Amino acid sequence: MANSNGASAGITFQLTEEQKMIQKLARDFARNEIAPHAEHFDKTHEYPWDIVKKGQELGLTTINVPEEYGGLGLSLFEEMLVSEELAWGCSGISLCITINNLASLPLLVAANEAQKQEYFGRLVDGKMAAYALTEPSAGSDVLGIRTTARKDGDDYILNGTKTFITGATVADWFTVFAYTNPEAKHKGMSAFIVDRNLPGVSVSKPFDKLGQRASDTAEIILEDVRVPAKNMLGKEGDGFIIAMKVFDNSRPGVAAAAVGIAQRAFDEAMQYALERTTMGKPIYKHQAIGHLLADMATNIEAARLLTWQAAIAVDEGHPSIKLASMAKSFAADKGMQLCTDAVQIFGGYGFITEYPVEKLMRDMKIMQIYEGTSQIQRYVIIRELAREYS
Fold first, then answer.
1. Average pLDDT score over residue span 248-259
2. Contact indicator for 359, 352 with CB cutoff of 8 Å
3. Distance CA 343, CA 351 (A)
4. Which residue of 111, 133, 301, 325 is 20 to 30 Å from 246, comparing CA positions?
5. Left, alpha or beta for 181 (phi > 0: left; psi -120 to 50: alpha)?
6. Pairing mode, strands 129-132 and 173-179
7. Tens of pLDDT along 158-192?
8. Residue 316: active-site member
């Protein structure tokens, strides 16, 4: 477990008093502000501005922004506590609140002081941001991006299209990855902070999605966008390394959200199994259902602990690509199975929108896809294992 400043305190699974307070803050917010409105935003696809603004007041949109810039400055482990609780309420609304964390990661990795002052400052002032890496022809294959950045005096001219960008329609600025030297492959990729109001930047309407309908996901088009050279993160060629370091932090976050959804699905299924009776007894007493619930609870605990381990490794200064991928794939895959099982336990009622488990199943599916598919995670895991055994 991590202590309040992110360092380990030996092998213990007890939260500090400060961590319990952080967890309770997020839990109360999820139950009082998010969960009661989840169904409405799922059905209308509206952006939950009122809830996001309440989250801003509590600092939930600037969780990982360092305290010296006005944020909460939480450790990654503490961020996982928050992410799990918020996702319990609704992972779509939670994503609207926490998407700034993802956009901030490249700045935490590579920004200079002036960049941090300017762009962290905007987030603290209530602005939103988005992380723009994925493209129509490049998702899990980061090296497959086609966006280019050509040097022109004191500027770079950016051209390309980014897709499936969460928060794009409300973002004040984007972190954008582009090739400054395509011939150099991974050594030719660079990262930029791109202001939304620059000429040539346009954003599509939000996509109509299977799940997480409260969060906006859209396309960003860059047409001869002139970005000041001072907005480059790090130096030319640093983009790929920055993106990989972001994954070390972001993949445990996806795992934590998956645990939150899974926990909610289990809570709903367990409660239903206690109340629903067949053949004269509650259905949890039937072995087929009871053993299913036992496995569900076990997998949640395993996914949570793996997520915590991956986050703590980052906080202690030795991030593990392998652990991050293990946490993300295990939590997402087991979570998807768990949500499917929750629908099964509800029977016909699980298939209708009057009960929440069908929404949870739809919301969970994306966890197996974004930040690298479950298949890509296995590729990463075996690659790292081969290196360890070589």
1. 97
2. no
3. 7
4. 301
5. beta
6. parallel
7. 999 999 999 999 999 999 999 999 999 999 999 99
8. no
Residue 186: Cβ-neighbour burial (10 angstroms; 0-12, 13-18, 19+): middle
Residue 30: is its pLDDT beyond 90? yes
Asked if 41 and 30 count as a contact pair (C-beta separation under 8 A), the reply is no
pLDDT of residue 6: 47
In angstroms, the CA 83 to CA 260 distance is: 7
Indicate the SS3 state at residue 55: helix
Joined tokens for residue 143: 């090296």
Encoding tokens for residue 285?
């007493």
* CB contact at 8 A, 342 and 370: no
Show the domains of the chain with their CATH numbers: 17-124 (1.10.540.10), 129-237 (2.40.110.10), 240-389 (1.20.140.10)
Mean pLDDT value across residues 213-223? 97
- Residue 248, pLDDT > 80, answer yes
Alpha-helical segments (H) within 90-224: 91-110, 113-124
- Which one of the listed residues 84, 371, 384, 388 is annotated catalytic? 371
Residue 172 sits at φ, ψ, to 5 deg, of -85, -30
Average pLDDT over the chain, rounded to an integer: 96
Taking only the tens place, the pLDDT of each residue in 319-329 is: 999 999 999 99
Alpha-carbon span 299 to 305, nearest angstrom: 10
HSE of 11, CA atoms in CB hemisphere, 13 A: 0
- The token pair that represents 295 in the structure block: 């496995």
